[in-house]
Amino acid sequence: MGKIKKIGVLTSGGDAPGMNAAIRAVVRTAIYHGLEVMGIRQGYAGLINADFIPLVSSSVSDIIQRGGTILKTARCEEFRTPEGRQKAYENLKAAQIDGVVVIGGDGSFTGARLFNEEYDIPFVGVPGTIDNDIYGTDYTIGYDTALNTVVQAVDKIRDTASAHDRMFFIEVMGAEAGFIALFSGIATGAEAIIIPEVKGEERDLKKILFDGNKRKKSSNLIIVAEGDEEGGAFAWAEKFKNEYPDINIRVTVLGHLQRGGSPTAIDRVNASRLGSAAVEALLDDQKSVMVGLQNDEIVLVPFSKAIKLHKDVNRDLLTLVRILSI
Predict the structure, then answer these.
(1) Catalytic residue among 15, 131, 144, 228
(2) pLDDT tens, 45-85?
(3) Is there a domain that residue 326 lies in?
(4) Which of 31, 138, 177, 207 is the 20 to 30 A CA-CA neighbour of 314?
(5) Residues 101 and 126: beta-carbon distance below 8 Å
(6) Are 172 and 132 found together in one domain?
(7) Same domain, 111 and 155
(8) In the β-sheet with 192-194, what is the strand arrangement from edge to edge?
(9) Which domain, by its residues, includes 279?
(10) How many domains does the chain have?
């Protein structure tokens, strides 16, 4: 087991369903290998404030089915500074913590990479974000649950859209990536999908909805990722109201309900696999890496790649959307 005797675990950035399953896996895998575990509350702020709590097997009982994170999460500007990271290091040394598992997104991994460039306590990352936009892994914790939440909501909106002959612009999360919008749009039979990755003619809604061999529809659902360059669902709705005053247009912003809820079986299983693999990576003297899933196999991806490289949507799926919306 080398020099690792005690590890810490924290959740950072936006919460995602399945984070608790990952925490549980980290704790129990560590105990299985004879390690002590400290929970670090409130993300990187907890490192700076020494907000540590010992975790034993019973500490993580009855949490695998819960959304959110028992360790709480926060974004911490102070950790971006050398002074903040030095405080964190001193607190980790004082608590005799030999390695840290960070469950979060690319912003969390950026902080972990900086820390590992400066100090000798290894950090290993577990990808936790509903956006599924981290390079090097096919899957991020929370994405499957968020996707299913959106699908259930959009199915309900479809009922009222059809009843009233309305066009609905439905905004989903995805500030920089359109994975949730693209997959939920296909799953719900949306007439159009607007995502940050698609620009120019490909996002001409008039052409998509009204040109060519499109059949006349009494209702239309358009899924819009919040990070779209037009400004989101309200901006699109306003634009369409001005051009087509006779169309009955409504907007729904699904918002933070996408982050909550009990995680799906897929999120529970994959979060468990990744959390356990993160402990194994620390025991294998790895640092500044993210554990990910590629083709259903555990892989280790350097933070530098996970942070800097762009994960693109499957362009074939965009073609599929156009074919199926006729």
Answers:
(1) 131
(2) 999 999 999 999 999 999 999 999 999 998 888 999 999 99
(3) no
(4) 207
(5) yes
(6) no
(7) no
(8) 192-194, 220-225, 167-172, 249-253
(9) 6-142+263-308
(10) 2
